[in-house]
Design a protein that fits this description.
Number of helices: 9
CATH class: Alpha Beta
CATH topology: Rossmann fold
Bound molecules: 3-(4-hydroxy-3-methoxyphenyl)-2-propenoic acid
CATH superfamily: Alpha/Beta hydrolase fold, catalytic domain
Number of domains: 1
Shape: globular
Helix content: 25-40%
Strand content: 15-25%
Number of strands: 9
Length: about 300
């Protein structure tokens, strides 16, 4: 019965053109349930930026994951990771009251941090720095998520990346930077595909569509949205060989259709070479059966995608 059901789902996806390059795999249970022996550190990076609405200076900070044994004598790749709507830079790496239930009240180590620690300890992932900022203004009003995600690239390019590269020992250049995010963080990530190709080679949009044409444009205007992304890449002067996207969501995710329709339209365009192997193509789309729109699934996507970058 289960087999027949799975078969029908697969046929259904093929008929709709909802194909995918890979099925997302679960995280080993002990990666989430136990501390790694070699645990990295979470530190705070303060930086100065500009409020895009007022033009005034504005203090902000990001939380930064430094891998176990971080040393200024080595260099590291950097993954910029953006939260979703209504949360903040604490979301991924430092549980607070708002996320209490996600961490079983244990604020010292989040699930994502544990996964990074274990994956690095076991050699599944090269030691990497993860930077978690916020797209919201650090002032009241915090700005609406739509315009904040659209405008974040200026802060990222002019202020955050330089601050990170002054503070930590990193490899320079777009081949050594990735940008990803979940939900509104995925909306932010599509904006970086369109606006920050000079700064990043790798992109990880998770459970969220591109809002360049309109809010939820991936759902309401999928063909125009896909074309917008293609045109933006071309206008930035980059060819299909110059970037890699790993995009993921889950079948029970409220954004599944939004992202899925956009991806289906992207498959029709020559700029996007869908392939399981990012050496042979430049974009890979993965779907987690039963995956829902929350932190517990998002960490599974990061576990799957991050080791595919920086090769
Ligand atoms: C989507 C893109 C972004 C989506 C939701 C969001 C449901 C963000 C929601 C939020 O942060 O409240 O495609 O689909």
């Amino acid at each position: 019965m289960r087999f027949i059901f799975s078969f029908l789902v697969l046929v259904g996806m093929a008929v709709n053109g909802w194909s995918q390059e890979f099925t997302v795999k679960q995280v080993p249970e002990n990666y989430i349930g136990t501390e790694a022996e070699k645990a990295g550190q979470v530190v705070r990076l303060d930086y100065l930026t500009t409020n895009f609405q007022t033009g005034c200076p504005m203090d902000k900070h990001a939380l930064v994951y430094l891998p176990y044994g971080y040393s200024a004598k080595q260099r590291y790749n950097v993954f910029y990771l953006m939260h979703g709507g209504g949360t903040d830079e604490e979301f991924y790496l430092h549980g607070n009251e708002k996320q209490k239930e996600l961490y079983n009240g244990n604020f010292s180590s989040t699930k994502l941090k544990r996964i990074l620690d274990h994956a690095i300890e076991n050699g599944e992932l090269e030691p990497i720095i993860v930077v978690c900022p916020s797209f919201y203004l650090n002032e009241n009003p915090k700005g609406d998520a739509g315009s904040c995600t659209k405008n974040f690239s200026t802060e990222l390019q002019n202020d955050l990346i330089p601050a990170v590269e002054r503070a930590y020992s990193v490899y320079k250049g777009r081949d050594h930077r990735a940008f990803g995010g979940f939900s509104m963080g995925s909306v932010t990530t599509w904006w970086q595909v369109c606006q920050s190709m000079d700064y990043f080679r790798y992109f990880m949009p998770m459970s969220g569509d591109c809002w360049a044409i309109s809010q939820l444009g991936g759902k309401d205007h999928p063909a125009e949205t896909a074309k917008y992304v293609e045109d933006a890449i071309r206008k930035s002067g980059y060819a299909p060989k110059d970037f890699n996207i790993v995009s993921m969501t889950g079948t029970k995710d409220i954004a599944y259709n939004h992202l899925g329709q956009q991806i289906s339209e992207m498959r029709k365009l020559p700029t996007f070479k869908f392939h399981k192997d990012l050496k042979q193509g430049n974009i890979s789309y993965g779907v987690l059966p039963e995956g829902e729109h929350n932190y517990n699934y998002m960490i599974v996507y990061i576990y799957n995608a991050l080791p595919l970058f920086f090769h």
